[in-house]
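Backbone-to-sequence.
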């Protein structure tokens, strides 16, 4: 599907026999969603709906939510499944040096496109309709974000994209990363389904000069997206340079602007929690990645206003929610279900409004980005026990149907607009090529 086809006039359709909830203020056990011109025309009880002749999908009592959002992803890692690092990985830095940095150097044009497409299939299979992607491909920088955007548009996903600017390959390479971020953000300025944000790898791969350069070169209204305090080494690096920590360093270099997206925030100075309250960046927690990299966990009590990302671990946001809950239970740091629900639904809704007005809502006039999970509750469901149903009933985010702007992008294992066997076959070839370059 081309982006033009994506935006063409949408046929009306309705989904009925579903439990409908926005997770925030509204739940209807026998619900109907009617869609016209890509937006929600009616969402509510069947008893109050004026039944019409139109293509109708019967959901079999499944749970319908606003399309899910991955607030921090790395589509470039999709072809890495099954690969082992080049050497031992006793700590966080060695994981980057032995795995992710060689991988992002090995990716070429074809690999970028096919890893993004493979990731898109996985997103749609898990009801994800919007994602923020933090991209890296150090041997193919210029034009890389357009390639990722193209893959997202083929699948009908909305995206916020950036390139991980870093000085780990020197100043000249860094300038290229800056250019790629700026050029892409300008290119999609008028695009309702695609946005740019300024990507930075992490404090510890950027000099003060680099930070100041970014602040000076980028438009003031363009926020940054960065790995912030993921590992203790990031905090230690910022302290060595005379800052309280990674958040303070961004602030003092003019980069903690409205809309800033901070991934992780596991290791911060105690004074920086106040900065988060004062400047209100969006903090993205990535519980499965943090556990996998053994870096600790974000202090969810100190940062209740967070959203969820996977950091490339998967495309499954319900599974990520479950991991957040279970890891919190194991360490005795879990919030109550109300706080967890606000983080998963309300905070996500608030953050989405920066880019996609109305997304994350089921109100009439909202974009019809929807996920019907392959889960039909067999016990009473209310707004109050929704978390219990997601965590212990659905348990993962496998979708039965995924819609973007009113278009059925995935339904009962099939992708109407994507040739899955062809993509899988091409992705396999690209993955083999990637392995040869990686292990060289
Ligand atoms: Zn990340």
């Amino acid at each position: 599907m081309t982006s033009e086809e994506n935006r063409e006039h949408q046929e009306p359709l309705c989904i009925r026999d579903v439990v409908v909830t926005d997770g925030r203020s509204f739940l209807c056990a026998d619900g109907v969603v009617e869609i016209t011109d890509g937006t929600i025309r009616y969402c509510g009880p069947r008893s109050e709906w004026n039944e019409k002749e139109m293509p109708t999908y019967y959901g079999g009592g499944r749970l319908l939510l606003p399309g899910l959002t991955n607030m921090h992803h790395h589509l470039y890692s999709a072809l890495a499944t099954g690969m082992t690092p080049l050497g031992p990985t006793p700590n966080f830095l060695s994981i980057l040096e032995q795995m992710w940095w060689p991988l992002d150097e090995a990716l070429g044009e074809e690999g970028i496109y096919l890893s993004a497409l493979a990731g898109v299939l996985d997103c749609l299979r898990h009801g994800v309709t919007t994602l923020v992607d933090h991209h890296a491909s150090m041997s193919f920088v210029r034009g890389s974000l357009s390639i990722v955007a193209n893959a997202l548009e083929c699948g009908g996903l909305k995206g916020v994209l950036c390139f991980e600017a870093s000085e780990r390959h020197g100043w000249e390479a860094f300038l290229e990363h800056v250019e790629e971020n700026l050029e892409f953000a300008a290119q999609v300025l008028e695009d309702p389904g695609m946005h740019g944000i300024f990507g930075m790898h992490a404090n510890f791969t950027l000099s003060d000069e680099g930070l100041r350069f970014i602040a000076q070169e980028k438009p003031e209204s363009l926020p940054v997206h960065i790995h912030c305090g993921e590992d203790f080494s990031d905090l230690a690096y910022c302290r060595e340079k005379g800052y309280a920590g990674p958040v303070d360093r961004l602030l003092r270099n003019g980069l903690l602007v409205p809309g800033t997206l901070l991934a992780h925030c596991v290791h911060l100075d105690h004074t920086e929690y106040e900065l988060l309250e004062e400047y209100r960046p969006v903090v993205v927690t990535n519980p499965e990645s943090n556990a996998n990299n053994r870096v600790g966990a974000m202090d969810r009590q100190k940062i209740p206003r967070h959203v969820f990302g996977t950091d490339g671990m998967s495309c499954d946001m319900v599974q990520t929610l479950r991991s957040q809950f279970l890891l919190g239970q194991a360490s005795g740091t879990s919030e109550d279900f109300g706080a967890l629900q606000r983080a998963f639904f309300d905070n996500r809704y608030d953050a989405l409004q920066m880019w996609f007005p109305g997304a994350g809502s089921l109100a009439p006039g909202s974009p019809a980005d929807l996920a019907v999970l392959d889960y039909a509750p067999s016990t009473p469901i209310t707004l109050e026990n929704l978390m219990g149903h997601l965590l212990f009933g659905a348990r993962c985010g496998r979708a039965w149907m995924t819609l973007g702007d009113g278009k059925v992008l995935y339904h009962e294992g099939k992708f109407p607009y994507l040739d899955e066997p062809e993509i899988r076959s091409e992705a396999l070839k690209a993955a083999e090529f990637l392995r040869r370059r990686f292990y060289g």
